[in-house]
DNA sequence: CGCCGAGTTGAACTGAATCAAGAAACGTGG
DNA sequence: CCACGTTTCTTGATTCAGTTCAACTCGGCG
């Protein structure tokens, strides 16, 4: 159950067995149904979530419309980072797109871990670095790529995204209309047949 | 000379006079001509820059073309954050768009300050938070706004950007073609006359 | 003077949005 | 298990925003 998480952390920073044990002792495991809100905009994020199975969607309201800001797939985290770290109201809401198994760690618990072992500080940093970098890449993708290219890039990264995420949510993440994404998808299928 | 910087820092975290003195003692002041490279892509960022006057442009190469990632105007910082903090090669280059007065602080010096007073850690965090948030807003702007709206937003934030930044650089920052930006600008002027 | 980079403008084209209608998939209650 | 409404997806027709290509202007500078 915790293996995915430990593996993921190892890609960031090496952990010794006692650190792993310490972490696992403090993890909270939960299985929640589709459409559960993990956080509502305006509230303060009290947990970091690690997705074992399922998908988390992060979104916010802009000009009355929902805009998808992020998807968290298995073996990745969902962290409204600054709300969690600095106890501020979150812009984003988090909701489950499927029944999901999650590991979570509360702000209080993480504080405790941070005070006992500096390795958690490093992990924290590395995670922040990863998300910062992917935000930068996302900006660049809007600067230089067309809708079609952005769509193809995300398919490359997450070949199974179509089955997990609805058309409308993906379109809003990519910054294009639902109809355009549907047509891109159709063209893609046609090409595949030839 | 250092007032702008101190004011800016006060918006992040309150500083007492001795902290201010400590900082000023360690600042390096320099006046550099237009087109000076502060950092070339692939190198490690050794300095944080604070712009007193002038403009810094950050850009990277994507598919053979230059893409502008950031402008740093007076009273703001230019920090290739992760390159500076974790001593990694930078994706971005930094170049001066005008003769500029800069304040800089080296990685070594900042380490020294950090070790002596926790307030610099807080400032560091708050800065990171600001840049992270503005990156998020930038992504959202691409998701929901048209070229025209993005152009108007940046004009609102930096009314004098047209005089400081060339058309091509601004267009690449906004993710639109130079011709389109020129037309937007022309339409805007016409409207202003009526 | 003539060149060069930066900006403008026009015309044709194209990618993507919008509007509108219908098809498919899905959940819920009878 | 089917009938229903609801949401999700597809498809077409039209419009529009933005790109591309190309020619031209303007100001600065050797």
How would you describe the overall organization of this protein?
- The structure is a homodimer of 194-residue chains.
- Helix content of chain A is 51%, strand content 22%.
- Chain A is α+β, with helices and mostly antiparallel strands.
- In chain A, the strands form two sheets. In chain A, strands 1-8-3-6 form a four-stranded antiparallel sheet.
- In chain A, a hairpin with a 2-residue loop joins strand 4 (56-62) and strand 5 (65-72).
- In chain A, helix 8 packs across helix 9 (178-193).
- Chain A is globular and about 55 Å long.
- The interface between A and B is medium-sized, with 26 and 26 residues.
- Chain A binds a DNA duplex (30 and 30 nucleotides) through helix 9.
